[in-house]
Amino acid sequence: MPYSHHSHSGQFCGHADNSLEEMVQEAIARGMQVFALTEHMPRDQDEDMYPEELAASQTPADLIRTHDEFYMEAVRLRRAYSPKIHIFIGFECDWIRPSSRVLIENLLYKHTFDLFVGSIHHVHAIPIDYDRQLYEMAREKSGGTEEQLFQDYFDTQFEMLQALKPPIVGHFDLIRLKSDEPDGTFKRWDSVWPRINRNLSFIAGYGGIVELNSASLRKGMNEPYPKKEICEVMMITLSSTHARLRSIKVFLEAYNILRSAFFTLE
Which pLDDT tens digit goes with each residue over 194-234? Predict the structure, then answer.
């Protein structure tokens, strides 16, 4: 049964294309039976605004208003397309610092969500997937090496997992996107691989699911998030961080990878 639990639209996300309704229509055209609408949660501090948001003179208040508009549109689309596809309404959380927990809990109280995706986009409150310059700033903050930054990433992820127990964990190994060796093995670092296994064990313990996310394939990497070596020791759900119509097509590529490289499906 084709499905996805992580998506973004250009209507409500600066790094995506197409309207939310177009994303739903494409999912239906591709034969998906379940599709989750999970725009990024709003951030409430000026220091956490991204460069393109600042260039557009946006404020945290604008992000909150946009997310409320997303929720209203998602509810409308679920009603309109319910005979053709089962739509989940959720959001992708941004765990930037421990105080993010309050913002996330308030959002869960504000609206009725079916799920949320627990993700890490920041280490030391610095974005690690936006561009190389910010990635290098985070690396320096960690001590100057990628091993240290990867340790801090998975420790931050563990902090988020313990606090939120997200039903779905997004792009588990996103940290490799801007790294020197995006396709390199995590096992090359004795300090990193145990942290990965610790986090996976914790997710399994509370019944969470790690998505297999094909966005990395669009960005030039050889394997989805997470890498095969991680997939071999966990349970997964398919997603592609659908950010444009083409992403839904790439999703099918990830599905084929799942079939041919990760598991034998009987």
Answer: 999 999 999 999 999 898 888 898 899 999 999 989 988 77
Beta strand 115-119 with 122-123 is unpaired
Query: What whole-number distance in Å separates Cα of residue 22 and Cα of residue 102?
Result: 33
DSSP string, 5-36: S-B--TTT-TT--S-HHHHHHHHHHTT-SEEE
Comparing CA positions, the residue from 170, 173, 159, 167 lying closest to residue 208 is 167
The amino acid at 153: Y
pTM: 0.87
Both structure tokens of 110:
């504000």
Nearest to 44 by CA among 90, 89, 91, 101: 101
Those residues whose C-beta lies under 8 Å from the C-beta of residue 216, and which sit 6 or more positions away, are 171, 177, 182, 223, 224, 225
The answer to whether the Cα torsion of 180, 48, 173, 201 is positive or negative is: positive
